[in-house]
UniProtKB/TrEMBL annotation:
Residues 1-34, 322-388, 404-448 are annotated as: Disordered. It comes from Halomonas elongata. This is ParB-like nuclease domain protein. NCBIfam families: ICE_PFGI_1_parB. InterPro entries: Chromosome_partition/occlusion, ICE_PFGI_1_ParB, ParB/Sulfiredoxin_sf. Residues 419-429 have a biased composition (Low complexity). GO terms for biological process: chromosome segregation. It comes from the Bacteria. GO terms for cellular component: chromosome.
Length: 636
């Protein structure tokens, strides 16, 4: 049976019948690629990164432009694409090159500047792109401090928006490192501090390239002034920020990369003095300088630091309660040439010459007038008669005659006393002998003092007097280097920590366990810094201070980099040995030659310098003293 064919009308009806309806949304363009690959694009398809941390012109702009003009673009810039954007965007640095390509294409019209190769990278997040730009510019070292600071602040806000929570500085550093931008926590702290407190006051100076050393100094001064402001406690803390801004903004100028610090310090001291009532400038100045010194030496600053707060507290009490204000310094003994009053009666040879030798000559006309009270100077003196005047004149003439006769007798023959004490022309005088002995002793003292001085300690007079006062309050005599130079174990050495004026003596105010731990930790860290670890700015410090327990410090293993240094191993092992045998690292040298190489070795690179050796001796003394103090506490 043959198959029935459709008619022409049926075929036309089938062909004109609408097809199945499209249920999905129409796609006008393809989705962004999900993998990294290279491709060619036109300049009109690219846009710069709109949140680029670089806000100032690249200092190498002209150099880069000349290079691209000659040889073209050597390195393909990385690009990405935001969701929903129709153009590609610079991803990890390359905004300067894109700007140069646009300029060159406008100037020349050459297609080699218009069509370029790029590396496409899939979109991840805003924080990822921002971290990429920061990392690229940090690698090239082209960003100013304020540009990096603003970029860090922007990255922090972006990460917090994505996470929905506030990030600590350590969390920010960790997440930035995960995004490929490694930055130290201390840098983050200073950068955020700069944006919050310094950027509003010094925008022109920061844009001119004010660097990290100056920023650290500004932060130190601001924090020191804030501590003094809160310690005086006359104005609310909220008023400090505007007052500091008013002073600092006076020094904001273009093309300035360093502040005039002597003037800045004077203005800040004036600010503190103006915002306190009747408090003199000198105690404020002393507190400011002491706080800056403590910060520089990394000493802990507490309310118990008497060399900072004692003079200021005394001045505050004087201003607020003058009647009960304590003396700032102990009374100084009188050192003038004032003669003590005479307590012995005159001898006969000291009495006035006359018939009545040994009796005091009185000019009073009335013998009973000596018992009368002294007359008022404002009253008129009593009248003196002619007879009385004549009698007085006769007495004066008699005394003059006797004095002339006595002088004539002495000119003929010297007295026995004068003959005995007359110097012999052949023998040296006693005075000359005393002078020679004094000069010899002074020379001996100077020679010994010079031999025991590694570096002169220049201690302010006020600080020395305060230290001596505290020592006297503890019932001991102050320790003086010059006085002890012939009878103690002094050795003067200045340095970036407690100056040393005696290897053995420890002042009583520093003998408490906590004070001893503070000093021990500082000396231990000084040894570590000489060995190359625990340096300022290091993210990992093997020597950790402990002020409340132990011997003042604990040890963590050296990093892989530092463990390659023989010097670092020996010093670490030495510090571990001072803590106890169980702290030693068997992987480091353990023989006694470790100590010998450090103390008496012949290699200058491995042997401790004198300045460091002195601090090692002092460290040992302090540890022994701390152990004795802890043993006494346990026994009690």
């Amino acid at each position: 049976m043959s198959k029935k064919h459709p008619t022409q009308e049926q075929m036309m009806e089938a062909l004109t019948k609408p097809g199945p309806q499209l249920n999905s949304q129409r796609v006008n363009e393809a989705a962004p690629p999900s993998q990294e690959f290279g491709m060619q694009v036109k300049l009109h398809q690219l846009r710069p990164y709109d949140r680029n941390p670089r806000t100032l012109r690249n200092p190498r702009y002209d150099e880069i432009k000349a290079s691209i003009r000659e040889v073209g673009l050597k390195q393909a810039p990385p690009v990405t694409q935001r969701p929903g954007d129709d153009k590609y965007m610079i991803s990890d640095g390359g905004n300067t090159r894109l700007q140069i390509l646009n300029e060159l294409y406008e100037e020349t019209g050459e297609d080699r500047f218009n069509t370029i190769w790029v590396i496409y990278r899939p979109w991840v997040s805003e924080a990822h792109v921002l971290a990429g730009h920061l990392s690229e510019n940090e690698t090239r070292g082209e960003l100013t401090w304020i540009e990096k600071a603003l970029g860090i602040e922007q990255l922090k806000h972006t990460l917090e928006e994505e996470a929905g929570e506030t990030l600590s500085q350590r969390a920010l550093a960790r997440q930035a490192r995960e995004l490929g931008f490694a930055v130290d926590v201390s840098h983050i702290s200073r950068m955020l501090y700069t944006v919050e407190h310094i950027w509003p006051s010094l925008p022109l100076t920061l844009e001119s390239g004010l660097g990290r050393p100056q920023i650290k100094k500004i932060i130190a001064y601001r924090e020191a002034c804030l501590r003094i402001w809160k310690h005086i406690d006359e104005r609310p803390e909220e008023e400090f920020g505007p007052a500091f801004h008013e002073v600092l903004s006076q020094f904001d100028h273009e093309e300035q990369t360093e502040l005039p610090w002597s003037i800045v310090e004077d203005r800040l001291l004036g600010m503190l003095e103006d915002h306190s009532t009747d408090i003199h400038l000198h105690p404020i100045d002393n507190a400011l300088k002491q706080i800056l010194t403590y910060r520089q030496r990394r000493w802990p600053i507490t309310d118990d630091c008497q060399d900072i707060w004692l003079p200021l507290d005394a001045e505050i009490q004087r201003a607020r309660d003058p009647e009960n204000a304590p003396p700032l310094w102990p009374a100084e003994p009188e050192t003038g040439n004032r003669q003590p009053p005479r307590t012995t009666p005159r001898t006969d040879d000291q009495a006035p010459l006359g018939d009545n030798a040994g009796e005091q000559v009185s000019l009073e006309t009335d013998p009973e007038s000596s018992d009368a009270p002294a007359s008022n100077p404002s009253t008129e003196p009593p009248a003196v008669g002619n007879d009385q005047v004549s009698a007085l004149q006769e007495q004066v003439r008699a005394l003059e005659a006797q004095l002339a006769a006595r002088t004539e007798e002495e000119s003929v023959a010297p007295t026995t006393l004068e003959a005995d004490t007359a110097p012999s022309p052949t023998a040296p005088t006693t005075e000359r002998d005393d002078t020679a002995s004094t000069e010899t002793l002074d020379g001996l003292l100077d020679d010994r003092r010079d031999a025991l001085t590694l570096s002169e300690v220049e201690e302010p007079e006020g600080h020395r007097r305060l230290r001596d006062m505290l020592t006297r309050e503890h019932g001991e005599a102050p320790n003086d280097f010059d006085d002890n130079v012939l009878r103690a174990i002094p050795l003067m050495s200045n340095g970036p920590m407690h100056p040393i004026t005696d290897l053995w003596y420890v002042e009583p105010q520093y003998r408490e366990p906590r004070e001893l731990r503070i000093q021990i930790s500082q000396f231990a860290q000084a040894l570590a810094r000489w060995a190359g670890f625990n340096l300022p700015g290091d993210s990992y410090n093997p020597v950790q201070p402990t002020y409340e327990e132990g011997l003042g410090y604990t040890l963590e293993p050296l990093s892989e980099e530092h463990s390659q240094s023989q010097r670092a191993q020996r010093v670490w092992q030495l510090l571990a040995g001072l803590l106890g045998e169980e702290e030693l690292n068997p992987a480091y040298p353990m023989e006694l030659s470790v100590l010998g190489a450090l103390i008496s070795g012949t290699d200058d690179d491995e042997r401790l310098p004198d300045e460091v050796l002195v601090r090692l001796f002092r460290l040992i003394r302090l540890i022994r003293l701390l152990k004795d103090a802890l043993a006494e506490e346990d026994a009690s």
